[in-house]
Structures are given as structure tokens and as C-alpha cells.
Amino acid sequence: MRRMRWERGAISVCLLSVAACGGMEMYSGSTQRDGGASADGAAWGGPSAPPSTGTRWQPVPTETCGRHGIAWVEVDEVCGATDSPDYLAGFAAPILRDGALVERPGETRPRRTLFAVDATHLWVLDVTDPATATRTGLVAGLGQPLAVEAHARGLLLAAGGEGLLLLDITAHEDPVKVATVALPGPALGVAVAGEKAYVAAGNAGLAVVDLAAEPPALSRVIPVPGFAAAAAVRDGRAYLAACQSLVVVDLATDAVLGQAWLEGATQDGLLVAPAKSVALEGNVAFVAAGRFGAVAVDVTDPSAPVVRGNCTRAADQSFYASGVRIADGWLYVAGGEWGILPVPLTGPAPACATLTMPELPPTPGSDAECTTDPPWQVLPWQQSWVPPPVPERGRDPVQTLVSGGVVYAFGDARRIGARAVEIRQAGPTLARLGRFEEPQLVAAVSARDDRVLVIGPGGGLFARDDTALLAPLPESPPVARTGVAGALLDDGRWLVATEKGEIHVEGAAGPIALNQRIWPRGLTAQGSTVLVPTPTSLGTVAVDSRTVHWTSLPKKAELPAAVAATDGRVVVAAPEWTAAVPFAAGWGVALTPSGTMAAHLVFDDVDILDASRWREALPRRLLAFGAHGAGEVAALGRSAGLTVHQSPPLRLDLPGGTYQDLAVAGDLAYVVALDRGLYRSSLVTVEVAASGLRLVAIESFTGQATSVAVDGERLYVGDGDRGVRVYQRAGSALVPLGILEVQAVAP
């Protein structure tokens, strides 16, 4: 395997091939940046880490180490890979992209509602008080909303392949789609002038939509050179950021008046200066252009526009301009992982009047070494296993919105797997006023004897309540809000584990220190005993005597292992293993390994070394005991399956995805999966019978499924977005009873 070495902030490269250097060949070399990677399972494939904000991965063929392979290079997410069949899928990432602000009367001051889009949903945010920005609505079923503009008739969404959408926002918290205008190309950006909407539609050009018609209708499409990514309209002309150039169009005649762009915008076959967003000030069009920052184009003579200069951070490769907006004498450049660059437009010298060449990342070369390391030693999977802690806030904007002296920055942050809007004061200092952040409220949920333990920032201890679904208990442990895993013991006591390896038990004088990292859902309880797997051992914790015994695993667990227990039996499975390991249970003393179980058949010892499958989705393993034996879910890449270990084993293929948790009750198994890119989750119900497994139902919902638990006739699904979803079990059917809404406690 060849591991590419690149400087911090350089183009990340990852090469894939079949075999080389004496074994399975997997190439990796993605650059690491502050904040880590987003959750695995992104819709658009590529190396282990997500691309830099504003870019996407594109494969290019290469020949290295005597083998043909694929080099993954970062290209602009709007202007790169435009011919790929997965072009629009590349926008499905946990990041907000644009927004529109609408005011409405209030009792003491106008209410301010911010409508933000993330290529999957419309987020409705109350930003009247920036310090306490809150979400009041979340709307799905709107195609791929990439850009948004307010209009007298409502809200306009450039919704990718869905076209241009018109929404009625009379009720701000409940927008309603009232019209869809199909377009000959993807709707990437929208500008409004009077009763016309001008939609950048990629290779199709500029689509003009008549908003006065009932319903709104496409009136014409203006062909333009290049790939229309965004548009600005003024005085009867359209100014298009068309990837390869800035194009000026006369809207009266539909004629292209002129175009201009940087020399050397394409190097080694890659577009390094993408024209992707445009804003106007006087006789200058400012165009966002990646590492080149904001490019100033003089359009005094629209038939002969001239590049005047640019504003960038030439030596800082974390700077990547994706959006430009202008207000009150300032240009705001959304600079990706660098942040927001404010540029004054008034002063003794014109803004961005000097052309500065930025330092560009190197293209794929020969700086490499051969290695046969397996994926878990090459890929930074630890940063993808769970959403990592939030780093310095206010980074990764892909676009801004300026209104009333406030700058709203959209995007923060793909690399931490959280959608957010940073709210700052307009002007040179960009003082922080507030922030809205995608909720991550629940990490795990456990249920037993009408008690429910919720782990996460919105966590606590609850009792079953037929009226309120779940009622908080006064003895709720504060540690539930900071823990990563938990369980309810047979006698009803709660147990919470922290990431650094402390186990807190209800009524105990203090925590039991394991001095081992515990991952989310990384323990199980049986009786008054807790089992915790580590990379090399299985810990047996006797809660009452506070003693810990360690049993060595037959082989190392490279990724966080799953564990399940029942009377007389324990099973451990690391995600990369092809077969789980059973133990004979000697409670209170060290356990005894007793061979291996049947292989799960989702992947084998060769498949697990295929780094390309890891990049589709990391291997996962879930375990739970039921009436028919030990059940396990195994997943790698786009393959997944449920196996029930009896003689002979039963197996069922599952849809590919990032599976989060498994629960078994009687003849039914319940599995939850999460697609962070689409902000969508699935609850899968499987019937277990002696003759085989049968898929009963798949329920999808907007949110972040993290865990599932069963207690008698109730099923509980932990939803990081809202709280706990409660279902009534009626045979093999699930009847939704409601959602226990929880809130995080301010730090």
C-alpha cells in the first residue's frame, strides 16, 4: 500500500488498487485538520476524511507502485465533477449552505425568522434574540435545497434536481410548498428581481422564472458559456459565476455581453480558481473563487469586463472562498475552515485591486512510501466513529447573509458533523452575538421495569407515564448528561459510564475507575455485573463489591467492540472481526473464552482490508441476546446483515448504512441506522422465527437515531435531534405514541 504524504491543508490524496507491494493494496493520505472528520456514511464516496469545506473528492486514474489505481483529489464542490452521475449527491453533507431572513411584527420588536437550507431540509430558526437562537421548524420533502431567497409571494428554494420551489411562509414555523418549477438543469442558486427569479442551472445556463404567473412558470432559458453556479441581477443584466468565468448577460436580448476570468484558472487539468458565487458593488463584481478568495472584476464596460485583483489569504491553505455577500460598505467572504474575511469597500484605495497568487495544494505526485498497513492503522476512524467534540466555534462558513447589522454564517461545520449558523456583528471585528447548532441531545437509551435512562446532553432518568410518555424522576443523575454509555441493573439501579472510564452507580459512594476509554454503547449489564470491552481485554465489574476482573481477548479489537450478556453466556465482537467470540460466564471472576461463533458472512478477512469499503461506511457490530439466541448486526461499506446464532444460524441482508444499535424482544429484533449526510434515520423491524428471518418494516424519520431499547410493550428510540421516540408494540407492528422532547443544559 502506498501512503501519500501531504502538508497540512494540502490537497488530500488517496489511491486505491487491488494488490501491490506483496499484498492487498489500499492507499491513503487524507490531510487532518482541527475538528476531525464528520460521521461516516456520506453519500458521496472518497477518502476517509471529508474534503475541505467547499470542496468534494474526485477520482482520477493513476499508476503507482507498479499498479494502476485511483487518486482522490479535492475539487470544488460546485464547479468540480460536474459530469459525475453523483454530482448532486455530493451536496449531502452535514453542513448548512444558505439562508434568508424574514421579519414579522412582534409585540415589542419585529420577530426575525431565518430560513436555512442544508441540501436536504429547510431549517426554521427564530433569531430575534441572537443569543438564544432556536429552531422552530424542520421541513423535509423539498428536494435538495441549496440556496434560498425571500420574495413577496413567499420563499424561493433552488432545490437541485427538484427545480425551483415556492413556499408559503404565512405560518413561519410550518412552511408549505405551493409550486414547483421544473428546470432543464440543477437549480444551484437563485436571484430575484421584481417578479422574476433567475436560477443558475449548471450546464443548462440561466433559467428565468415568471413569479407573477399562477402558478409560477419557466419563461425561458438563456444559454451561457460554462457552468452556471450562481447569479446576481441588476439594471437589466445578469452576472453569472459560471465556474470557468464571470459572464454578463443582457436580459432584454438574452445576449452574452462579455466574460472574463483569471489566467491559469485550470492547472494540470483541474479547475483551481472556480467562479462559484457573485455579489455586486458599484461597477465591480466580486466573485468567490476558492483559494483565490474574492476576485474583483471591473464591469464598467459589460462587454469587456476586466479582472482587477483579488482578496485572499495566500499562505493559509485553510482559506477557501465559497460565498460572497455585500452590505453597508463591507464585503464578507465565506472562507471555509479559515472563517469569514471582512473587506472594507470604502477607503482611499479600491478593494481587492491587486492580484495575489495563493499557494496551491500540490497535485498527486511521487512523494510516497509503500506500506501494507490495514485500514485501521491508516484511516483516522476514531474521528468518524462518533461525532467528535465541537472545536473552536464559528468556522467553516460556505456562505453568509447580512441583514440589520448582523452577519449570519452558514456551514459550521462539515468536519465536526454538526450543522450550525454562527451569528456575528457586522463590521471588521465580527464580534459573536450568538449561535444556533444542530442538537445532539441523546447518545444512548436504556429501559427496564418502567424506568428509562437517557444518556447525553439532554439525558436523565425517567419513569413511564401513560399521559406524558415519560416523566422525569427527582433522583435523575446529573452524570447522565455527560456520560457516553449507561444501563439499568436488574434491581432498577442506574449506571452511567464516562468516556474516560469511570462507572457511576446509583447509591454508590463514588465512581469505579477503569482507566480505560469507554465508547458510546460500549458496555452491558447482567444482574449486578457490568461488562466493558477494551482493545485487548474484557472487563467484568462487580458493582456491589467494586472489583474488576480482566479477561484477555483471543485477538485485539482494533475498533470499539460490542458486548452482550445473558445468563451463563457473554459474546464480544469487534467490528473488524468476521466471527464473534463467546465466553463462559463466571460472574464475579474472570471469564473464559470458548471458541468462536459462526461467521456473520457480511464480509470476510479480505473484504475487511478493502479501504474503499471503509470509506463508504466504517465496519460496525451490534450484539443482543433474545429468545432465539445471540443476534448480531454486521456492516461494512454498503453491505449489512443480521445474524441470529442458532443451529443452523439465521441470516438476513439489511440495507447498507451506519447501524447504531440493536434490541431484541421475543420474536422481534429492532435495529436503528443513521445517515448523517441526509439527517435521516431508520428503524428496522425483523421477525425471528425458527424457519428464518423476515423483514417486517422500515420506518424512516428526520433526525439522528442513536439507540433503541425495549421494555415490555414499549419501544424507545434515542433521537439525538429531539429526545426519545416512544412506540407501543402491537404484535409485529409499532404504533408511535409520541416524542419525549429533551433539552441540553447550558454548560
Provide an overview of this structure:
By secondary structure, the chain is mainly β. It folds into 3 domains: 2-76, no CATH class; 91-356 and 393-437, Methylamine Dehydrogenase, Chain H, CATH 2.130.10; 444-741, 7 Propeller (Methylamine Dehydrogenase, Chain H). The chain is 2% helix and 47% strand. The strands form 17 sheets. It has a 4-stranded antiparallel beta sheet with strand order 3-2-5-4, with no helix packed on it. It has a 4-stranded antiparallel beta sheet with strand order 6-7-8-9, with no helix packed on it. The chain is elongated and about 85 Å long.
In brief, what are we looking at here?
By secondary structure, the chain is mainly beta.
Keywords:
Methylamine Dehydrogenase, Chain H, disordered N terminus, 747 residues, elongated, single chain, mainly beta
Shape: elongated
Oligomeric form: single chain
Count of helical stretches: 3
Return Rg in Å: 27 Å
Strand order of the largest sheet: 3-2-5-4
The proportion of strand residues reads: over 45%
CATH architecture of the largest domain: 7 Propeller
